[in-house]
Design a protein that fits this description.
By secondary structure, the chain is mainly beta. The protein has four helices and 15 strands.
């Protein structure tokens, strides 16, 4: 008789615990990359997921081996994100305090336009003297450790969203050669609309941050992939559950438990932008995207899939990890499928 197995394998990645619901459907960016840019730029942009289609493009990846396809036409699934312009509401300056980290020095808010309907997101917003706040930051620029802006999306400009309430996100200003240059750039764009092509360029890699599809309360088989117990267990305590639990196994390797599945904040690294366009009809299939409709404003075409269902807000960020390779430009797209997604 062979040796008996001492324990079952650990189930689920420890890096994804706790598997709880996201605190907000608009994900907060916790880490920011260092960008090698002569001019100051925003390090993130918000968009809305419209749907998926597929394209053919000329492979420009520096690859080798028996399965390499250099300069050949290849197939790729793509996700279309609608990215209407974002309005810059405020400039926020941070100072660094040892032992505490970054603390807000002050912030300067501008008066938003009426059609933005900012009161839906911030009902108690009170605009103070913006020039006085800007002057205060200039006088204390030596204390400033970080410059960020507060931006609002404009869902009313999209073709697939019915909501009017803007989403508010904080975006760091990166690049440039000094804090002074970043502050001058933030002061320049305050109260203006920023388009996605001013933040990203075609062909580059980005990180995608979003909240995944929610699947509710699920058992251990669907949540962790635990094997169902044999049939002779069914007469007693059920079969779609874990077997015995060792008294000390929870401290070393958590036991799979039923609970929340989906609606988790997740980050996918190094997704490539294949195309950025201004005419959404170029990528809208016949009959529109299922459950979304027609893309009417600026759009971003990403290689592959992204987290979340249609209409969900997606944050694009400059890559924080080393990219697989350095693109020199956008790939040549030879075909975009505009066939109906409605089915037969």
């Amino acid at each position: 008789m062979g040796a008996r197995k001492k324990r079952a394998p650990r189930r689920g990645s420890l890096g994804l615990r706790p598997r709880k619901r996201a605190s907000s459907i608009v994900p907060r960016i916790r880490s920011w990359p260092e960008v090698d840019s002569d001019k100051p730029i925003l390090l993130a942009f918000a968009a809305y997921k419209a749907g998926m289609t597929h394209v053919y493009y000329i492979d420009d990846r520096p690859s080798s081996g028996p399965y390499a396809t250099p300069n050949r036409e290849i197939f790729a699934p793509v996700t279309i994100l609608e990215a209407p312009p974002m309005f810059i509401l405020a400039v926020r300056a941070y100072r660094y305090k040892p032992g505490y980290g970054l603390l807000t020095l002050t912030e300067a808010w501008t008066q938003p336009p009426e059609d933005l309907e900012i009161h839906r997101a911030i009902p108690t917003l009170k605009i103070e003297d913006v020039d006085k706040k800007i002057k205060f930051i200039e006088d204390h620029i030596n204390e400033v450790a970080d410059i960020r802006v507060i931006a609002a999306t404009q869902p009313k400009l999209t073709g697939g969203l019915s909501k009017k309430k803007p989403d508010i996100i904080e975006i760091k200003v990166g690049g440039g050669d000094s804090i002074e240059s970043r502050f001058e750039y933030a002061k320049e764009i305050l109260g203006k609309n920023i388009r996605v092509k001013e933040v990203f360029k075609e062909g580059q890699f980005v990180d995608v941050i979003a909240v995944t599809k929610g699947k509710g309360f699920q058992g251990v088989i669907k949540r962790f992939g635990v094997k169902e117990l044999p049939r002779w267990h069914k007469h007693r305590k059920g079969s779609r559950k874990v077997g015995s639990r060792s008294p000390g196994i929870g401290a070393v390797s958590p036991v799979p438990q039923p609970g929340q599945l989906g609606f988790h904040r997740r980050t996918e690294y190094n997704k490539r932008i294949l195309k950025i366009g201004e005419n959404g009809l170029e990528v809208t299939p016949k009959g529109g995207f299922l459950g979304y409709g027609i893309v009417r404003s600026d759009y971003v075409m990403l290689h592959g899939s992204v987290p979340g269902p249609r209409k969900r807000i997606v944050i694009l960020r400059h890559p924080i990890r080393k990219t697989p390779w350095e693109p020199v430009g956008a790939p040549t797209i030879t075909y975009i499928s505009l066939e109906s997604k409605q089915g037969v």
